[in-house]
Every structure is written in C-alpha cells, then in structure tokens.
Design brief:
The complex is a heterodimer of chains A (about 1000) and B (about 350). With about 1000 residues, chain A is mainly α. Among the domains of chain A are: about 90 residues, BRCT domain (Rossmann fold, 3-Layer(aba) Sandwich), CATH 3.40.50.10190; about 180 residues, P-loop containing nucleotide triphosphate hydrolases (Rossmann fold), CATH 3.40.50; about 50 residues, no CATH class; about 110 residues, Zinc Finger, Delta Prime, domain 3; about 100 residues, no CATH class. In chain A, helix 3 crosses helix 4. In chain B, about 55% of the residues lie in helices and about 10% in strands. Chain B has a seven-stranded mixed β-sheet with strand order 2-3-4-5-6-1-7, sandwiched between helices. The chains are: A mainly alpha (about 1000), B alpha/beta (about 350). Chains A and B meet through helix 39, helix 41, helix 42, helix 43 and helix 49 of A and helix 3, strand 2, helix 9, helix 10 and helix 11 of B. Chain A: It is found in: Nucleus.
Chain lengths: ~1000, ~350
C-alpha cells in the first residue's frame, strides 16, 4: 500500500501522526499525548535500534515495489505495520520515563536516552505481530475478494495514510473546510471489511526478516536524516502571505474526480486551507503519493520524498498558482463520478486495525482492555483536551468528529461556534503576545514544571527579594496571573496546564467559593488521585499531578464567598499542588493579601500590531473584508482587548451579511472609541468635527467624562479662535461664559440634590452651547483645568487662615474673614518689622507680638503665605537668614504651651517643643492667664503631658536665660535709639 | 505689643465709645436676673464682639476674661473626626460652628447641646445659666440652624445663646424670632474720628483731623480696619501729615488693578489673564461677593453712563447665579466677559460715531 511507502520515506513524521491518529487517543492520555509523542520522536532520533525495522523494511519495500499489484498492496501495508512496531517499541520505555523529567523543561526531556534492550524489542515486536496475526487471520479468507478491488483499496488506503501523514495540517481553525478527511476516515472506520488487512501482515513479517540485513550504522544514518527532516518539518513556518492571492471562483465540482496532494508551504494558504479549497471544488486530497494521485501541489520546502515519488508515479506537479489555474480551467467541466462506496469499505477495516495496533503499542500488557478502550476513545475524542495536541499533530482534528458526515456537517458545527471560541489558541504558541523567553507563558511553564521538585518538602526555598528581577517563583506555591480582561490569562493557564499534562481543577466566579466550600471541596479534590490514567492503561496509572486553577479570584465577593480569600491563602500555604490564581486588578485590596503568597505574573495588553496580525488572519479565514486601518481602529477602540476585538469583527461580519446594514457597520469601530478629555474638548470646539455630528453626538462628548468635561471646556474655550467676524469674538466669548455659568448652576443642583437626571441639561450648557458659540479651531495648547489646582490651593489657605483665627481668637475680636483680610498683613508687618529693621536685636520684639497673639512659629509661615500676592515681595525677604534662625531659636526656648501646640508640635520638632524655661515663661506671660494656668498644670503633671519634656535645669539653660534677658534689654535700648550696632548681637551669640 | 485695635478695646459697657444708649440698655438688661437669647448683628468692624464681651463681663465679672483655648473633637455620623477650637471661660463658651464646614450641624448637636444640658455648678456665679457665644452665626447651614432652634427652647433654663451675625438675612426666621436682636450699626464718621483721636491720644500721638477723616473713608466705616490702617500709617510716617499716604490692603489694590485691566483691553487673551487674577483673589480668601462689589465699583466708575445700568444688571445676575452655583470663578468670569463685550461694543460704536 502506498501509505506504507510514503510513511517509510517520511518515516518520522508519519510515525508520529499515525501513532496519534491510529490510536485514537484514549481519554486519559490525551493530555499527555504530546509528551509521549515527543519522547517517541526523541527515541527514534537517538537510538538506532528502534529504527531498524523501518529501515530494513524500506529496503525490502523498494525491492518489492516493482512486483505485481497484489504485492504492492501488501507491501504498502508492511511498512506501516513495522512502523507501528517501531512505535510500540518506542512506547515501551515510556512508562519508565520519569514524569518529573518529562514535565521539567522540554528541552531536557529530549536528551533523555531511553534504555532499551534490543532483544526485548524483538520480543515485543513478536508479541505485537502475533497479536496482530490473531486478528488478521480471521480476515484471511476475504483476501481473495479484495483482489478485484485492489485499486479501490489502494486508494482508500491512500486516504487513510493521508490522515496519518503529517502533510494535511488540518488545523482546528479551519476544521470547517478540512474536516472531510477525518469524516471520511471515521466513516470508513465503521464500515470496514476485514479483507484488505490480512495480506499486509504477512508481508510485514516477511519484511521483518529482511530488515535484519541492514547494518546498524546504516540504520542509524537513516534515522538521523529522517530526524533532521522531521525537525525541519516541525519548525516549518506557516504560509507566508495569508490571503495574498485570490482564490478563483470555480464551478462547484470542477475538480471532481481528481486527486491532489499538497506538500510544502504554499504562499497564500495554509495547507489545510488548500485542502479545503480543493475539496470545495469536489477534488480529493490525499496524503500519500500514489498511482491514483493526479496532481501534486508543491509549495516551499516540499517533502523531498513526495517529489521523488511523484516523479516515479508520473504525477503532475503544480504550484499554487497552477492549482488556481487548473480550477479556472476546469470550471464548469464535469468528470464522471467514481464509486466512492466501494473504496470506503476496505479502508474502514484498515482503520479498525490500525486503532488496534496503536492500542497494542501503548499497552502491551493490557490486551484485554483494548477493544473497550477503543470505544471509549472514539467517544471521547471530541473532548476539548484534544486541542492541545493540535500543535504538533493537526490531523487529530479529523478524529474529533467521528459521527459527522462530510464537510457540511463540520461547517455547521463551526458556524455555530462563537468566533472567540473558534479561534481560541489551541497551543501556547498561538497565544498572542506571549512568545519569547521572558513571556509569562514561559515563566508559568517553568514554574509549574518545577513545582513538584521545588516543593517536595526536602528543601525550603528562600523568599525572593521583591525587587529581584529574574525570579522563577520557586518559593511560591501559587501563581497569580493578573491583567486586564481579554488578553489570554485563562487561556494561558489552561494551555500550560494541558501542555504539561497536569490535571486541572478549576473554580471560577460561577462557583461558590466560600471558606467552607473551598476547604471541603478543594481539599478533598486535591487529595484525590486520578484513576484516569490507570483506566486508560498508562503505567503511570495514578496521576498525582493536579493543578488548582482559581479563576477570577477578584470576583470572590459577597456573602456567598465570604472568607474565601483567607481560605485560599490558607490553602496556598499548605498546598500539595500548584495553584494558579487569576485576577484583573492585582491592586485590589482583596487581592493584595493574596499577592504576598503568589508568584506574580502580570499580563500586559498585547501591542496593537500583535493583535492586528491575529485579527487579520481571522478575517481572512472568515473571508471578511476589512481594511487594516479599520482593524486598527477597532483594536484601539477595545483598548487592545483581543477577545473583544474578535467579538467586534464577528459583529462586523454579521452586518456584512445584511447588506443594508453594511454602512452602519462602518461606524461600529469609530463610535466605541473612548476619548480622553483632551480629545473631547478639541472635538467640542473644532468646527470641522461638528459637520458630521448631530446634536446627540455633541452631547455625547460631554459624557465621556462628565465631571471633567465642563472644567476642560471652561479652561480652554478662550484658546479657541471662532470662525466668523473677528469683531464678534468677544460677544461669542461672553455667550460661552454665560452658558458655562448656567452649566455650573446645573452642576450644583445635580450634586447637591442628587439630581442626576439633569446631566443632559448640563451637557447642553457646559459642552454643546460653548461648542456652538465658539466653533472654530484651537490656536493655543489645550490645558489641564486650572480650577482643580487653584481650588486645592484656596482650600489650603483657608485651612491656614482658620488655624490662624483659632490661635488668635483669645485676643482678637474679628471673624475668620476679617482676621484674614484685615489683621493678617498688619500682624505680619508688626512681627517682621523689628526683625528687618534691627536684625537680631529685633527678635524679642517680634517674639513679643507672637506671644501676644498666641502664635506658633508655624503661624508665621501661614501669615507669610496668606499675605503673598503675585508681584509683591515677601516682607520676610528683607530679613537676614541668621535673624530668622535666631527668632526660631528664641521661640523654641520660650515655647508657650497652648492647647493647640500639641498638634502642631507632634508633626514638627516635637523634641524641641517643650524644652522651655519656666522662669522666663512665667515672667513674660503674667498677663496671659491661660498660659499661666497651663504652667500650673505643667508643674503638677509634667510627665503626663506629652507636650512637655522633663526640664533640663542645666547650666546652659540658665545662661541662656541670662543672655536672653540681656538681649531683651539690649533690644529695648536699640529700638529706642533705633540704631542697631552689629557687633552687639554677634558678641552675644 | 499688641496692635492698637486690641490694646485699646473697651472691656466694660460703660467705657464704650459709641452707641452709648444701647450700652445702657444692655447694662439694664444685665441688672435683671434674666435675659433672652441675643443676636448681635451688624457689619464687620462695628463692635459686635466687643459688646458681647462687655456684656458678659457685666454679668459675670472679670472672670470671663480668663479665657481658655480648647480643641474639641467630634465624630460625624459618617465617622469623620472634626476638630473645633473653642474659647471658653468658666461662664461662657465661644464657638464658631462654621469652622467645621458642612459638619457644623454635628457641632451644634453635640457640643452646644452638651454644654447647654449641664447645670452651672459654680454657686458663686451671679447667674444660674451659661452663655454660649456663636460667632459667624450667619455662616451656619440651614441644617445646623434647625438643630439649634430646638436647643434654644429646650435648655432655656441653663443656657443663653448669643449669636454674632453680619446679616440677619441668612438666619432662619425661627431663630430670629427666638432672639432679641441687637443691631450694632457701623459707627458714623464722627464717632470713628473720635475713637481714632482718643486712641492717638492714649498713644501720645497727634492726629490731624483730615487724616483721621481720610482713614475713616478708606476703612469703609470699619473701625477695626481704621485702627489697623492708622497704626500702619504711623509706622510708615510719623509725625502724621494731613495728606500722607495711607497704606492700603493688598487685596484691595489687587482687585482695583484687576478692574482697571478689564477696562484697558477686551480680548479673550486678556480675559484669560483676568481669570488668573480672579483665581488669585479667590485663593487668598477674598469672598467672591466682595470681588463682585469691588469690580463693579471700579468698572462703573470707569465706564460711560450708557452701559452702567447694563453692568450692574450683569453683576446682579451673575452674583445671584454664583450663589446658586458651585464654582465662583465661572460666574465671575462670565460677568467679566459680559462687561468686556458690552464695553467693546460701546467703544466701537463710539469710534463709528466719531467717524461720522
């Protein structure tokens, strides 16, 4: 059979695929499959033994190829079987693979050599062969009848091989179009007759014998080549310019009866897309080059074997353009129908067999379970977990819908899916903006894969420095993915978990997550061990690798979830499994406590270009015509939210189907843009913008930020040059100011009476009318509203004035206002004048005034602030810095204990505050009753008063007292003579 | 070295310089065992507070002058802590509830009620009631005033309330009717010059009568301001001369300059500069209605008869709106813009008629 041949040439990829394909992954293994496969591949690449059969087979096959058609048929089967054996052999060591190594970083996993004894291998192979024989012998009789149907069988087998080969990359995205292959196959599987398979087995045995002829070196060499090719295949890029060429609109069945095979990378289509195009026109897509093949569509990096084979078979080789040309040529042309049903039957049989074989490969010992499992497999194939495998084995998709018939069914299914789900990343590499070594996906992957090593209880990791840059989070038992919605947090978590093959237990906001429930459910869940693997025959039967995914942890709120957060933290502290938490706002007070226990992974919004690429490719796949500019607008409007962007284009596409609404669709993107206040105010006043705006649109501008909009308008309307007569400008300004004044009244009503229904009224006065009056263009820069700053400044000054009033109240009579407006300047002048006139000698005089008015040192600063006017010099400027310092010192020495000095001094120099000298205080404040009183109190309870420290009756204080009294007398003299001698104060210092 | 205004404040009713008849009435009021709640009203600088203190001294003796400064803390219903500074003696408590801003109701309810409820303990006190002096009573919100009115009735036995207000118009009628209103009118020019002269005499200075009259004029019959000005003038230049310059208050100067700038140029750019000046005035605590008044006075002086009426109309309109609005600057600016507009129109018409 051709399939065999083909798979021989492209052994490795085929092997992999056939493996996946033919052993319709048992549910348990689904998660792990990717790993298994890869380990399989590694195995092949490394150990020559495994490849032995394949290589020898190849030799034999080439020899056999020239034989009769009957032989050919058998021949084809042999390699496939042998390949299976290979896989089986490779599979064997799998159970031995340390799962920790498997999960702990993919790169290392590759290097792990699997110990394999050749003899054991042989034995195993024999086992398999025997078991296969058993099955096949029953079918032996039918072989003869098959002879007549040789052609059809070969073709069907080709089909099957196609399914198995890596070539048809049927991505889930395009499942709609590509699905015929899987459905075909599935159908076949059910309708199989046993006939076709028997000869194959026999031939295979034969081939096995011949295999041994090859030397080890040779085999090894081939293996290596094949491995290299496979690596290349794996790393191949996707199509270069998706959508760059127009697919011709051919007649419906123009390719009917023709068979195609697509190889390599086409320029404008993915391979599965090409396949779907071909199928769309009634052609058939094969995966193996065979006699029946009519055309080989070749792209870049086409499989060399396929080319060789195509030449051998005399197949026409086409480029992508050639294919399109062919479609155009043949449009309208009809070819005779072939009988499909005949072909299908034998193929189906093959399928069953194959499934069995794969089963054998995987579970050599548990033969009895095989059949049952296969049933299971079929049923569970649809499970979403399969998605994960798509990365490496796109054909798996085919298996997904075994019941579905043909493309239409598939199409329908996908049509019903929301685009967001349809184009959900199915592998971690598809997550937008999460590629690269430092990406969150990689970090999470590393963290998760090392989790069980890091937390095996043997070592205690250190809490990392919070500023450490490249922390791998090994300390943490939980990870916290935070970021805005719609950028792939949940997707990342689920995909990573799948990739690593962990069992995920997910709780999200739809689950009640109260303390009690979390404790019960999660604890019990995590304590469980999954029998999943066991039931499915993996020797690593009992899975211990759970991951708890707590989605939307910031949604833990309300009565139902009370205490959930604490319980979650407690859970994290003594968790035996990794926990992945997700939230939007990591600075939320509820989340903040959680953050301390989590490896913090912050998701940023992907850049616009990153999303754009994805959106464009979706648009292409959905055949939605949308301009790149529009896409950019749309993405910007959603604030770089991928999910929402996709929803938007889905809406656009829906609109497109309704022709009359197509125009409206154009507005969707533009309308949803959120404007900042700067843009709003620009739009409010720009005359050009007004042209396409209705009154409602203009009012809407106000609602972008209704608290800021009036302020912005008021701040900036004078920067606008209105259109029209220049002499009219002032009247327009007046009208605008009038409208704004009315708007302010409305604002007051809204806020004081909670009359929010008046907002539209305010919109008219504060935004629409100014815009109408002043429509023109901005000549100046748009400024941030000054009102906010000025308001806070006047509040501050009002506070200072209030303090001042409070302090002076005992001896003044004025209200707050009069103290501020009338007293303050004179009071300040009285304090500063002696300082400015006689320098340090004026200090006592100044201090005297301050004492009279019960002022604190801070009040002097307040006075200064309250009397400053733009363009006026501060009176304190005239005072020498040293004099100021002297004033402060003198003040500190003779501090007066007012009831309010407490607050002032607590804030500032508390230590110095109460370091007072009672004698002086008593002398100087005879008149001041309240101070005298407080003095008495001080004497009684010095310790109790926080204000007052224990007196330092030191010599210094006494001398200070003496000196100040001297200064005081000197100052009096000086003021009376009003001539200050500079030498005197200096000597005193 | 207190300022003259505080140094020479009369402390007894008998020593008051003007409104002597009223002083006699107050003294007679004290002689009776009881007196009703009082409401002193009159403009700033007329001597309300002085009279209140004199009255208290008359009633309780010198003890009321032993003042304490106390900070009291209240918790509002919204759990906000409000601190209020009070001045009190053994016989009275002076409080300004409007210091608490919008929480003045809490102050009225908590503090005043609490004080009012407590019986006077001091048996030596001449009166068996305390006095609560509420300054700036017209700043009280309506809520606070309503809270006050019940207190005034209920605790009549233990306390009297003396309100000091600038204008009764902002006091609710319910309170007005509960109080005996005592109008303290601003002293007339003769009274004021007499006060200035006597002050100078006590300071040992000679004050030319012309200067005294000028100071009185400048002070807008605000005695406090007049005394402060006089002292400043003394510092600036002594011996006094009749024509010497009287230092003005900064904000008045600034306001006048602002008005002059409005007249000088009428463009949006200028309006923006004016806005900055208005902001400055507001942030310095000059009440917006004073700004309106200052502006209007200056503008009306500087403009033609034909637009004076219009100017006043606008001023009243926007002042009213300002009272109903939240952001003063909006209305001040609107007034300035309107004035600029009519003034500019007037000027251009003037030019046109000149051309003809």
């Amino acid at each position: 059979m051709q399939r065999g041949i083909d798979s021989f040439f492209k052994r490795l990829p085929n092997k992999k695929n056939s493996d996946e394909d033919a052993t319709p992954s048992p549910p348990a293994r689904k998660k792990r499959k990717a790993l298994v496969i890869s380990s399989d591949e590694d195995e092949i690449a490394e150990s020559p033994q495994v490849s032995k059969h394949g290589k020898t087979l190849k030799k034999t096959r080439t020899a056999l190829e020239t034989k009769s058609p009957r032989n050919e048929n058998g021949q084809a089967k042999k390699p496939s079987l042998s390949k299976l054996k290979d896989v089986a052999a490779a599979k064997k060591p799998l159970p031995k693979v340390n799962p920790v190594e498997l999960f702990g970083g993919e790169t290392k996993r590759v290097e792990k050599p699997k110990p394999k004894d050749r003899s054991i291998l042989e034995l195993e192979d024999e086992d398999i062969d025997r078991s296969l024989m058993e099955i096949d012998e029953d079918l032996d009789e039918s072989v003869k009848t098959v002879k007549q149907e040789k052609i059809s069988t070969s073709e069907s087998s080709r089909k099957r091989s196609k399914a198995a080969s890596p070539a048809p990359t049927t991505k889930p995205k395009t499942a709609k179009t590509t699905s015929p292959a899987p459905t075909n196959k599935a159908k076949i599987a059910t309708a199989t007759t046993p006939k076709a398979t028997t000869p194959r087995v026999k031939k295979e045995k034969q081939a096995d014998l011949e295999t041994s002829v090859l030397s080890d070196e040779e085999r090894h060499e081939r293996k290596r080549m094949a491995a290299a090719l496979y690596q290349k295949y794996k790393n191949r890029s996707s199509c270069l310019n998706p959508g760059s060429k127009e697919i011709p609109k051919g007649a419906p069945d123009c390719l009917k009866g023709l068979t195609f095979l697509v190889t390599g990378i086409l320029e404008s289509m993915e391979r599965d897309e090409a396949a779907s195009v071909i199928k769309g026109f009634g052609g058939r897509v094969m995966t193996v080059v065979g006699k029946k093949l009519n055309y080989l569509v070749v792209g870049e990096e086409a499989g060399p074997k396929k080319l060789v084979q195509a030449e051998e078979h005399g197949v026409n080789i086409l480029s992508e353009d050639g294919l399109f040309d062919l479609i155009r040529e043949r449009s309208g042309e009809k070819t005779t129908e072939k009988n499909n049903t005949v072909k299908v039957e034998p193929k189906a049989e093959v399928k069953v067999k194959e499934e069995r074989k794969s089963a054998i490969k995987q579970e050599e010992k548990i033969h009895s379970l095989k059949v049952k499992q296969e049933h299971n497999e079929k049923e569970t194939k649809v499970s979403p977990k399969v998605k994960k495998e798509r990365l490496e084995s796109k054909p798996v998709v085919k298996v997904e819908m075994p019941e579905k018939t043909k493309t239409d069914a598939n199409n329908n299914n996908n049509e019903q899916q929301a685009w967001v789900d349809k184009y959900k990343p199915s592998s971690i590499k598809e997550i937008v903006g999460q590629s690269g070594a430092a990406s969150n996906v990689t970090k999470l992957m590393n963290w998760l894969s090392k989790w069980y090593i890091n937390h095996d209880g043997k070592k205690k990791p250190q809490r990392p420095n919070p500023w450490a840059k490249n922390d791998d989070g090994s300390f943490y038992k939980a990870a916290l993915l935070s970021g805005p919605p719609g950028i792939g947090k949940t997707t990342t978590a689920t995909l990573v978990v799948k990739e690593l093959g962990f069992d995920a237990v997910e709780f999200n906001a739809s689950d009640t997550r109260s303390k009690k429930l979390l404790k019960e459910e999660v604890a019990s869940l995590l304590g469980n061990k999954s029998l999943y693997g066991f039931a499915n025959g993996l020797s690593q039967a009992v899975s211990k690798k759970h991951v708890l995914i707590m989605d939307e942890v910031d949604g833990m709120a309300g009565n139902e979830d009370r205490g959930g957060m604490q319980e979650l933290i407690a859970l994290i502290k003594d968790s035996s499994v990794p926990i992945i938490c997700m939230c939007n706002d990591r600075n939320h007070p509820k989340i903040r406590s959680l953050v301390n226990y989590c490896y913090d992974l912050r998701f940023q919004r992907p850049r616009l270009e990153q999303i754009k690429g994805r959106i464009m490719s979706i648009c292409f796949k959905e055949k939605l015509k949308i301009s790149p500019v529009q896409v950019e607008q749309l993405i910007a409007a959603t604030n770089n939210d991928i999910r929402q962007s996709i929803n938007h284009i889905a809406l656009l596409s829906a609109n497109e189907q309704l022709p009359e609404r197509a125009d409206a669709a154009q507005h969707v993107a533009a309308k949803d843009l959120k404007l900042g206040p700067w843009e709003v105010v620009r739009k409010v006043f720009t005359a050009e913008d007004h042209k396409q705006m209705s009154i409602y649109d203009k009012c809407d501008l106000f609602f972008h930020d209704y608290s800021m909009a009036p302020l912005f308008v008021q701040q900036n309307y004078l920067q606008v040059t209105p259109i029209g007569n220049r002499n009219e400008v002032m009247s327009k300004v007046a009208a605008t100011a009038d409208a704004l004044s009315l708007g302010d009244m409305v604002d007051k009503k809204i806020r004081s009476n909670m009359a929010w229904s008046l907002l539209p009224t305010q919109a008219v006065f504060s935004s629409l009318l100014p815009g109408e009056h002043m429509a023109g263009h901005f000549t100046g820069q748009i400024n941030f509203p000054g009102w906010l700053g000025k308001n806070s400044r006047s509040n501050k000054r009002a506070r200072l004035a209030q303090e001042l009033h409070d302090h002076t109240r005992v001896c003044t009579s004025g209200s707050r206002l009069s103290v501020r407006l009338d007293y303050a300047p004179y009071l300040l002048a009285n304090i500063v004048r002696p300082l400015a006139e006689v320098g340090a000698e004026g200090v006592p005089a100044a201090l005297e005034v301050m004492k009279d008015y019960h002022l604190l040192r801070e009040d002097l600063e307040s006075l200064l602030e309250l009397t400053t006017w733009p363009g006026k010099k501060s009176p304190m400027d005239a005072v020498d810095g040293r004099v100021k310092a002297a004033l402060t010192r003198a003040y500190n020495k003779e501090v007066m204990a007012y009831s309010y000095s407490a607050q002032a001094n607590v804030k500032k120099k508390r230590a110095e505050a109460a370091d007072d000298d009672m004698g002086i205080l008593g002398e100087e404040d005879e008149e001041n009753v309240n101070v005298a009183e407080s003095e008495d109190e001080d004497k009684d309870e010095l310790e109790l008063d926080g204000l007052i420290k224990a007196k330092k009756k030191s010599a210094t204080s006494i001398t200070a007292k003496a000196s100040t009294s001297k200064t005081a007398t000197a100052a009096k003299k000086a003021s009376s003579s009003s001539t200050a001698s500079k030498a005197k104060p200096k000597s005193k210092k | 070295m207190a300022l003259w205004v505080d140094k020479y404040r009369p402390r007894e009713l008998s020593k008051l310089d003007y409104h002597k008849e009223q002083a006699d009435n107050l003294r007679n009021l004290c002689k009776q065992s009881d007196f009703p709640h009082l409401m002193f009203y009159g403009p700033s600088g007329a001597g309300k507070k002085t009279r209140i203190m004199c009255l208290l001294r008359e009633m309780y003796g010198a003890g009321v002058e032993r003042l304490r400064n106390e900070t009291m803390t209240f918790t509002t219903p919204s759990n906000r802590k409000v601190e209020i500074m009070t001045v009190s003696s053994n016989y009275h408590l002076e409080v300004n509830p409007s210091d608490a801003g919008m929480y003045d109701r809490t102050v009225v309810i908590d503090l005043i009620k609490q004080v009012a409820q407590t019986q006077q303990i001091d048996i030596n006190g001449q009166r068996d009631f305390k006095v609560i002096v509420i300054s700036e009573g017209d700043e009280l919100t309506k809520d606070a005033q309503h809270a006050l009115r019940r207190t005034m009735e209920k605790y009549m036995a233990t306390c009297r309330i003396i309100l000091s207000v600038n204008s009764t118009s902002r006091i609710i009628p319910a309170i007005r009717s509960r109080c005996l209103g005592i109008r303290v009118a601003a002293p007339n020019v003769t009274d004021m010059t007499a006060v200035l002269q006597s002050t100078c005499k006590r300071e040992g200075l000679v004050l030319p009568p012309e200067l005294a009259t000028r100071v009185v004029d400048k002070s807008e019959r605000n005695l406090r301001r007049a005394l402060l000005m006089l002292e400043a003038a003394k510092v600036q230049q002594y011996p006094f001369t009749a024509q010497q310059e009287i230092p003005e208050l900064d904000w008045q100067v600034y306001l006048r300059e602002t008005a002059n700038q409005i007249v000088s140029e009428q463009t949006p750019a200028k309006l923006e500069k004016i806005r900055d000046r208005l902001y400055e005035l507001l942030s310095q605590g000059v009440p917006p209605n004073l700004i309106f008044r200052g502006l209007v006075e200056q503008l009306v002086n500087n403009c033609d008869m034909s637009i004076k009426a219009k100017t006043l109309e606008f001023a009243t309109q926007y002042e009213h709106r300002m009272q109903n609005g939240a952001k003063h600057i909006f209305h001040l600016e609107a007034f300035v813009a309107q004035f600029m507009n009519i003034y500019k129109k007037f000027l251009s018409e003037l030019v046109m008629t000149d051309d003809f």
